[in-house]
C-alpha cells in the first residue's frame, strides 16, 4: 500500500495535480469557445436579456477567471503575491460552485411553476450554501522555494461546503425528478426535454460533488484531498450552463413557431359571417371567367384559425394557448 505522506508520493501527486489542472483548463476553454455564440446573441442584443441569465454569465466567467488564476499559480517562476493570487482563485472558484447550484435551482423553480413555498425554501438553502463557500475563502499562501504554496486552509469548512453542495444538488435533483415524473397537465415537449437530458445534468453535478467529498474525507494527503475540487466545480458549471442554454433555445424556438403559426392563421382566415361562392361564365369554348362573391352568413362565426365557432361574440384573445408554448423564466 502506498505511503501517501512520503515526500516521494507528495512530489508525484503534485506533478499529477499540475498536469491534471492544465488538462481541465483546456477542457473548459474548449467548452467555453464552442458555446460562445450563445453569449454573443445576448451581448449583441439579438436576443432579449432576462434576469436569470445574470447567474449564467457570472458562473461561466467566474470559473474561467479561477482556472486562469490556477494556471498562473502553477506556472509562475518569479516571486509574486501568492496570498492575493490564491484568494482570487478561491473567491472566483467558490463563486462558480455557488452560481452553478443557483442555475440548477432556478430550473427547479421553473418546473414547479414558481411555487412560493418551494422558492422560499430554495432561497434559504442557497444563502446557507453561500455562507459556507465564503468561509472557505479564508486561507493563507506564501512564496516558498520558488513556488506559491498554501500554508493554511480550513479543511473542515471545505469538507462541509462540498458535503452541503452534494446534498443541495441531490435535493434539487429529487424535486425536479418528482415534478417531471408526475406533471399536473401531462407531458409536453418541454417536459420531455427537461426529463430526457435535464435530469442527467443534475445527476452529473451531484456525482461530481460526491467524488470531491470522498477525496476530502479520505484525507490521503494535502494534494489528494483537493484534487477533485476543481473537476467538481467544472462539471457543475458546465452542466448548469448547458441546462440554461438548452432551455433558453427551446423557449426561443417555441415562441418563433407560435408567432409564425398565429400570423399565418390570421392572414388567411376567411372573413367572419361570410362565405365564398364561385360563379363561372362561359363564352364560346375559349373564355372562362371566374369570380368570387361574399355572402353574409348570420348563423356561422369563425375563430382566428378559420374554424366555425358557436356563440354571439368572438373573442380572438380568449383562445387557449398550449402550456408547451409558455415561455419559462429564461
From TrEMBL:
This is Transmembrane protein. The chain crosses the membrane at residues 20-43, 55-74, 86-106, 118-137, 157-178, 199-218, 224-244. Keywords: Membrane, Transmembrane, Transmembrane helix. It comes from Boletus reticuloceps. Residues 299-330 are annotated as: Disordered. The keyword Membrane applies. The keyword Membrane applies.
Amino acid at each position: 500500500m502506498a505511503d501517501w505522506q512520503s515526500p516521494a508520493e507528495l512530489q508525484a501527486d503534485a506533478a499529477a495535480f499540475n498536469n491534471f489542472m492544465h488538462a481541465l483548463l483546456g477542457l473548459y476553454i474548449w467548452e467555453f469557445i464552442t458555446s460562445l455564440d450563445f453569449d454573443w446573441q445576448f451581448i449583441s442584443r439579438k436576443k432579449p436579456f432576462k434576469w436569470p441569465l445574470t447567474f449564467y454569465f457570472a458562473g461561466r466567467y467566474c470559473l474561467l477567471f479561477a482556472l486562469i488564476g490556477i494556471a498562473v499559480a502553477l506556472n509562475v517562476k518569479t516571486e509574486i503575491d501568492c496570498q492575493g493570487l490564491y484568494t482570487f482563485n478561491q473567491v472566483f472558484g467558490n463563486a462558480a460552485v455557488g452560481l452553478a447550484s443557483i442555475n440548477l435551482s432556478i430550473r427547479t423553480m421553473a418546473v414547479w411553476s414558481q411555487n412560493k413555498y418551494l422558492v422560499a425554501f430554495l432561497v434559504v438553502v442557497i444563502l446557507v450554501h453561500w455562507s459556507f463557500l465564503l468561509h472557505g475563502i479564508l486561507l493563507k499562501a506564501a512564496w516558498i522555494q520558488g513556488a506559491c504554496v498554501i500554508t493554511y486552509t480550513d479543511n473542515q469548512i471545505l469538507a462541509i461546503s462540498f458535503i452541503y453542495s452534494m446534498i443541495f444538488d441531490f435535493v434539487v435533483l429529487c424535486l425536479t425528478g418528482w415534478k417531471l415524473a408526475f406533471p399536473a397537465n401531462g407531458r409536453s415537449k418541454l417536459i420531455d426535454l427537461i426529463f430526457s437530458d435535464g435530469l442527467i445534468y443534475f445527476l452529473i453535478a451531484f456525482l461530481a460533488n460526491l467524488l470531491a467529498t470522498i477525496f476530502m474525507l479520505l484525507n490521503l494527503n494535502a494534494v489528494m484531498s483537493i484534487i477533485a475540487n476543481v473537476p467538481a466545480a467544472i462539471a457543475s458549471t458546465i452542466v448548469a450552463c448547458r441546462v440554461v442554454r438548452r432551455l433558453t433555445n427551446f423557449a426561443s424556438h417555441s415562441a418563433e413557431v407560435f408567432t409564425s403559426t398565429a400570423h399565418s392563421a390570421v392572414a388567411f382566415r376567411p372573413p367572419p359571417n361570410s362565405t365564398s361562392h364561385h360563379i363561372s361564365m362561359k363564352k364560346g369554348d375559349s373564355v372562362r371567367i371566374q369570380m368570387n362573391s361574399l355572402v353574409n352568413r348570420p348563423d356561422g362565426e369563425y375563430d382566428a384559425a378559420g374554424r366555425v365557432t358557436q356563440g354571439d361574440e368572438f373573442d380572438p384573445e380568449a383562445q387557449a394557448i398550449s402550456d408547451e408554448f409558455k415561455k419559462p423564466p429564461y
